[in-house]
Specification:
This is Coenzyme A biosynthesis bifunctional protein CoaBC. The structure is a single chain. This protein has 2 domains: 173 residues, 3-Layer(aba) Sandwich (Rossmann fold); 214 residues, Rossmann fold, CATH 3.40.50. Helices cover 33% and strands 22% of the residues. The protein contains 14 helices and 22 strands. The chain has an 8-stranded mixed β-sheet, sandwiched between helices. A 6-stranded parallel β-sheet has the order 3-2-1-4-5-6, sandwiched between helices. The protein has a two-stranded antiparallel ribbon with strand order 7-8. The radius of gyration is 24 Å and the shape is elongated.
Length: 411
């Protein structure tokens, strides 16, 4: 594809803009104008609630295209128009993304044109939430946004500030310029890891005892999957090697599903060479010395002595000097006490470049949860970066940005 003309980084890109209900809808004509200035073609879908705040005529005027509103419009739907709308787009943008539409999208509901096309689309989605601060901070909304992020939906905003309802706090829709910038970043106008290769491990491993039982841990895979998705969004050609997890495969990532630590090591070595390896998986340290061919029965025994042997150390293997050692190897250290001290010792022992230390002591809700509190340790003498408690998706975004900065400095 030829490069976009100067000043038109979105030339040839087709944006489907979904406008849902909320006072912030008054900003959408300006958003359409900003996107078209950069060369994009914009087609609008307006919900019934959205039409209370911005008129179809205004959106038609700035987009110079038809505004779609009705799922049951015979002309549009004769060719399954709700599916065709999303298929013809290079990116779906929801602005404003109301609490109602986010909840429908997270739950898979489809009772109007907007929610139906969001359920039917395989096109990537960028959402700009906008709502009252209490609605934004409600656990239901936060859970819905976290669900959508894990499915690959990118979220921009909301901003904090004064609102039309008279309250102050997070919930204002990101400004049109910020949404436009996020769209440009999606298409690689700002892809700092373009041309780079990344390897990420995630989830637990299952170490078989017999055909029925296995040794495992409580890891959910949320953090590793989020890191893989964040690196891919920055342009990296990303391979994710994951143990068994309920997490969906991240969009735009090559995924290798494995069960055991030995299988994970084999898949990691097959993915080399890479520019960065992030070992976020909670790999089982031990496995049964012998895997029984048949289910081990409890009858006839009062106790069962299970002999264990060490699993291969994937982080240490990837950190070993050699032709295939990645320029940057990042490990994770899940600790229950002396978090930073134990993580520093692990970094020295494994030979990796960075360690992300996280506290998984009982009561933190970190192991398997949606949030993380981490320290990034980048050197023996460097003071660890103490990050605030963040959603795991936000931890991933920060880590990916730090990786991009580091690789950029070394190029």
């Amino acid at each position: 594809m030829p490069p976009a003309p100067a000043g038109k980084p979105l030339a040839g890109k087709r944006i489907l803009l979904v406008v849902s209900g909320g006072i912030a809808a008054y900003k959408t004509p300006e958003l359409v104008r900003r996107l078209r200035e950069r060369g994009a073609a914009v087609r609008c879908v307006l919900t019934e609630a959205g039409a209370r705040f911005v008129t179809p005529l205004a959106l038609e005027a700035v987009s110079e295209d038809v505004v779609y509103r009705d799922l049951w419009a015979l002309t549009a739907e004769s060719g399954m128009g709700h599916i065709q709308l999303s298929r013809e787009a290079d990116l779906v943008v929801i602005a404003p993304a109301s609490a109602d539409l986010l909840a429908k999208q997270a739950s898979g509901l489809a009772d109007d044109l907007a929610s139906t096309l969001l359920l039917a689309t395989d096109t990537e989605v960028l959402a700009a939430p906008a709502m009252n601060v209490r609605m934004w901070q409600h656990p239901a909304t936060q859970a819905n946004v976290e669900t959508l992020r894990r499915r690959g939906v990118r979220v921009v905003g909301p901003d904090a500030g004064d609102m039309a309802c008279g309250e102050h706090g997070p919930g204002r829709m990101a400004e049109p310029e910020a949404i436009r910038d996020a769209v440009e970043a999606h298409f690689g106008a700002d892809a700092p890891l373009a041309g780079r290769r990344a390897l990420v491990t995630s989830g637990p491993t299952h170490e078989p005892i017999d055909p029925v039982r296995y040794i495992a841990n409580r890891a959910s895979g949320r953090q590793g999957h989020a890191v893989a998705a964040a690196l891919a969004r920055l342009g990296a050609d990303t391979t994710l090697v994951t143990g068994p997890t309920a997490e969906p495969d991240p969009a735009g990532v090559t995924v290798r599903h494995v069960e055991s630590a030995r299988e994970m090591l084999t898949a990691c070595e097959a993915a080399l060479p890479v520019d960065v390896a992030v070992c976020a998986a909670a790999v089982g340290d031990w496995r049964a010395a012998e895997e029984a061919a048949h289910k081990c029965k409890r009858e006839g025994r009062d106790a069962w002595a299970l002999e264990l042997v060490q699993n291969p150390d994937i982080l240490a293997r990837l950190s070993q000097p050699g032709a295939n050692r990645p320029p940057l190897v990042v490990g994770f250290a899940a600790e229950t006490d002396a978090v930073v001290a134990n993580a520093r010792a692990k970094r020295a022992r494994k030979g990796c470049d960075w360690i992300v230390a996280n506290d998984v002591a009982p009561g933190t809700g970190t192991f398997g949860g949606a949030h993380n509190t981490v320290h990034l340790i980048t050197g023996d003498d460097a003071e660890p970066e103490a990050w605030p408690r963040l959603a795991k998706t936000d931890v991933a975004e920060r880590l990916a940005a730090r990786i991009a900065d580091s690789l950029g400095e070394g190029s």
